[in-house]
Amino acid sequence: MSRNGPLALAYHALFVTFMLAPILVVCFVAFTPEGYLSFPTDRWSLRWFYAIGRYPEFIAAFWRSLWLGALSSAIAVALSVPAALAIARYRFRGREAMTALFMSPLMIPHVVLGVAFLRFFTQIGLGGTFTGLVLSHIVIVLPFALRLTLASAVGMDRAIEHAAISLGASDATVLRRITLPLVLPGLVSGWALAFINSFDEVTMTVFIAAPGTETLPVRMFLYIQDNIDPLVTSVSACVIAITVLALVALDRAYGLERLLVGRSGDGR
Amino acid sequence: MSSLASLRVAKAPYLLTLPALLLFAGVVIAPLVMTVLLSFHDWGQYKGIEPVFVLKNWHEVFTDSYFLEMFWRTFRVAFFVTLLTALFGAPEAYILNRMKSPWRGLFLLVVLGPLLLSVVARTLGWALLFGGNSGLVNKALMSMGLASAPVPFMFTETGVIVALAHVLMPYMVLAVWAALQRLDPQVENAAVALGAGPFTVLRRIVLPQVMPGILSGAIIVFALAASAFATPAIIGGRRLKVASTLAYDEFLNTLNWPLGAAVAVLLLVALVAIVVGSSRLVERRYAQVFG
User: Fold this and answer.
1) ipTM for the whole complex
2) At the fourth CATH level, which superfamily is domain A57-263?
3) Which of A220, A260, A263, A264 to mutate against chain B (most B CBs within 10 Å)?
C-alpha cells in the first residue's frame, strides 16, 4: 500500500488537533490557580481538584453513576446472553423482529426515550427513583451488550459442545463448562461497553433524574447550565482521566477497533 | 425425534428471549405508546394534564411559526454537521487506513476514543475554546488572518455546528473506516499500474467504493445531530432552541407535557422516515453495484 504524502500528514495533524483540542483545554484549565477560568501559564495548582471534595453533590453523583452503570450493565448482559444464544442458534418466527426490537434503543433518539420514561415512571410511581434509572439504563445499554455477546455466540465452534455431550456431559455442565467460558470475552467486553455508555448518558437521564438521583453527567450538565467555573473543569478532567484509563485497558484486552467496528476486525 | 423433544426445541428460543422481551414490552413499547397518547391530551396552566382526546398540540406544532422555525433549525444544523463530518472525516479515515502498524492503532484510538468520552466534558471544552471575544479559536483564526474580527461562536448556530461536528466525527470516521477495510488494495495497485495518477485513483477507484460507508455514516450522524441535546443546550444557550431542548423545556420548565410529547413524537417520526427512507435509497443505489 502506498504511503501518506506530506500534505496528507499535515491534514492528519490538523485533524488530530481538532479532535483533541477541546479535551486538552478542559484538562489544562482544571489546573488553574486562579478563581476564574484561565489557562495556567507560570503556576499550576490542584486547588480546584481539592474543591471537588467540598461539593458532596458531585461525589454522591459519581458513586451513583458508578453503581448505576455497573448494575444496569450486569443486568443487560444477563438478559443478553440467553437472547444472543437464541438468536445465534435458532431460526424461529419473529427472530428478525425481536433482534430489531432489542437494537431499537440505538435508533430511537434518547430525548424521546427520556420523555417516554418520564411519563411512564411518573404514572407507575417510579418517578425520580433509582429503580427507574436502572430500568431505563438497562434498556439503553442492552444493544451494546447484545451486539458483543451475539458476535461471540455466532463465532462459537459448536463441535466443542457436541464433543462434551457425546462424552456424557449434562446440559447444565455443557452450559457451565463449555458455553459460558466461550462467550465470556464477548460478555466482559459487552459489559464494559455498556458500562461506558451508561456512565456517559445524559440526554435521557436528565429527564428522569430528580434531585437526589442525579447521575454525574446530569449534575455536570445542570451545573454548566448555571455557570461555567474551574470546578466543573476539574470534575470533567477526572471523568476524562477515568474514561481514558478504562479505554486503554479495554483496547489492550479486546481491541478498540474490534469493539467499535464490530466483526470486521475479528480475524486478526 | 419424539414430539416432546421437538416441542422443546421449538420453545427454547422463546424461553431464552422471554426475559429481555418482557422488559422491552414493559419499558420500551408501553412508554412510547403512552407518549403518543399523551400528545393528544389537553393541558392548562391550572388544570394540568387532562386525559381527553384533542388535536390541539398537533395543530399548534404544525401551524405555529415558532415550531416551524425550530424544526427547520434542527434539521439545518443536522445537515451542516453531516456535511462537515463527511467532508473532513472521510479523508481522515483514508489517511488512517494508509498508516503503518504502531501509528495506525494509536491514531485510531485518538480519533475514535472521544466517542466514549463524556459529551458534557467535550462540549465544555468547546465552550472554553469559544468563550467570548478572547476565546482561543478566535485568537487562532485572527492570527492566521482567517477572520478580521472575532466570530461569535457561543449562542450561535455556527458554534453548535462546530461542536456537534466534533462530537459526532468519530461515527463518520468509523463508518468510512469499516468500508475501507472491505476494499481490495490490489484494485488500487492495478489502477496505478495502468497509469492512473493518485488523484484519478482516489476519484475513480477509492471514492466510489467507500461511498456506501460515507452515506451510512451520514445517516447515523444526521440522526444523532438532529436529536442531540447536551451540546445545543450548552453552546446554543437558552434562546437557540432545537427540537430536543424545546421538548426538555416543555417537560421540565413550562410543564406542558402534552405539547412536549407532540414535539418529541414528531422528531421521532421525522427521523425514522428520513433514516429508513435514505437507507432504502442507499441500498437500492448500491445493490446494483455490489449485489
Assistant:
1) 0.90
2) MetI-like (1.10.3720.10)
3) A260
